Amino acid sequence: MSFHGWRALCARLGLLASLAGSPLALAAPTSSAAEPAARPAPMVLLTRAQALANAGKPAEAAATLERAIRIEPRNPWLWHRLAVLRLQEGQHSLAVELAKKSNVLARGNRRLVAGNWLLIGKARAGLRDAEGAARARARARGYLRRGGP
Question: Which CATH superfamily is 3-17+39-146 part of?
Answer without folding.
Answer: Tetratricopeptide repeat domain (1.25.40.10)
